[in-house]
Specification:
Largest sheet: 6 strands, antiparallel
Strand content: 25-35%
Structural class: alpha+beta
Shape: elongated
Order of helices and strands: HEEEEEEEEEEEHEEEHEHEEEEEEE
Low-confidence stretches: 24-42, 328-336
Distance between the termini: 101 Å
Radius of gyration: 35 Å
Oligomer: single chain
Number of domains: 2
Helix content: 10-25%
Number of strands: 22
Number of helices: 4
């Protein structure tokens, strides 16, 4: 009949459709076209490359550290041989932990026993960036007041009671008022180290109190503690020695202590002057009563939580004074004509001498006095 397909044609069409369908299914499943030589089809081989999983763990909203855990797996019977950490350290096995203190991207490599290898990176963004208004807190220290602002004076304390105050330096550059004077020189290595540290961390810590003596594990050491007798009758050479080793004796792991230098002193005064007009040039605040008081008891000379910069005892610094060639020997301190002597600058006033915090005087570094003391800085 016209308009109808014969049974033979219908059956032929069905066979064609089935064959075409089989070809399509075969291509989708295997990717092979019949009649082609596929050889060893790699898609049928299960990969044995390691699969790496990275996770982060930290405490609080403002963590100081983030721990990254790397875990690797493989389908190969030999398993995972090792994990290589971002710093190149090789850890045998399929699990490794890596602690970081700075934000950034960290790459981990996993190696199988069979030689297969792969890598994966993870980005850490949770650590607050250190800045002048977000000071780092050294190992072994805790804030005296968690809520204290930098402007008020952010104080930290170690387990022995040493206290230091954060000095913010927003520009990352320290101040030094005698920079252009040919008579003054700051060449001490710890001063250079402080300059470099501030360029990176935008601040440093200054001892809250004048240095006092403290016995730690049978060893005498310089301390920054309240209510102590200031350490006086000490030469510059001894002051710098005790200052430099204070961090070691107290067991600080990631910071250094040093005798205060001209950069630190002038930067601190500039910071205080920004809140208290003319503090650095005034004799209103210090203890000039003739009697040396214990550290940190002169309340009128507490500025941004730092005590006794003006009076009580004068303080050695690492700065060198170089007398001019035409300076007569009679005008030199101690009337000493030895040209090989090194003169160090002492800052501030004392109970026996009414001078402002910005005061400069110089003395031979091997001399001492009942009213001369010192103070430390703390930095990374």
């Amino acid at each position: 009949m016209e308009g109808k397909l014969s049974p033979v044609i219908i059956i032929a069409l069905v066979v064609v459709f089935i064959a075409v369908g089989a070809l399509i299914v075969n291509f989708v499943v295997t990717g092979n076209i019949p009649g082609t030589n596929s050889g060893n089809n790699s898609s049928n081989v299960v990969s044995t490359k390691p699969i790496i999983n990275l996770s982060k763990d930290y405490e609080g909203d403002k963590p100081k550290k983030v721990t990254i855990t790397a875990y690797a797996t493989t389908t190969d019977e030999g398993g995972i041989k090792e994990i290589i950490l971002p710093d190149g350290t090789v850890v045998e096995g399929d699990t490794a932990n890596y602690e970081v203190e700075e934000n950034g991207k960290y790459k981990f490599i996993a190696n199988c026993v069979n030689g297969e290898s792969d890598n994966l990176s993870i980005e850490v963004t949770e650590i607050p960036e250190i800045s002048s208004n977000n000071p780092y807190i050294p190992e072994g220290f805790t804030p005296v007041d968690e809520d204290a602002s930098v402007e008020e004076g952010f104080v930290i304390e170690d387990e022995d009671g040493n206290q230091y105050v954060w000095i913010p330096v927003e520009s990352g550059k320290l101040t030094r008022n005698t920079m252009l004077s040919i008579n003054y020189e700051e060449s001490n290595s710890t001063a250079s180290a402080l300059v470099n540290s501030v360029a990176k961390y935008y601040g440093f810590y200054m001892a809250r109190f004048e240095a006092s003596q403290f016995e730690k594990d049978g060893e005498m050491v310089a301390a920054s503690m309240q209510g102590k007798v200031p350490w006086t009758n000490i030469t510059f050479q001894d002051a710098i020695e005790y200052s430099n080793k204070s961090a070691e004796v107290f067991g600080y792991e990631d910071t250094h202590t040093a005798l205060i230098n001209s950069y630190a002193w002038d930067t601190v005064l500039a910071w205080i002057d920004s809140e208290t007009d003319n503090y650095s040039s005034s004799t209103t605040y210090g203890n000039y009563d003739g009697t040396i008081f214990p550290t940190g008891v002169t309340e009128k000379d507490e500025m941004n939580h730092i005590f006794d910069l003006a009076g009580n005892v004068r303080e050695w610094t690492t700065e060198i004074y170089k007398p001019s060639e035409d300076t007569s020997s009679s005008s030199r301190r101690n009337n000493d004509e030895d040209e090989n002597l090194i003169y160090r600058v002492i800052r501030g006033g004392a109970a026996s001498l009414c001078r402002p915090p910005s005061s400069h005087q110089y003395y031979s570094e091997n001399t001492s006095d009942n009213y001369w003391g010192f103070r430390m800085v703390l930095y990374k």
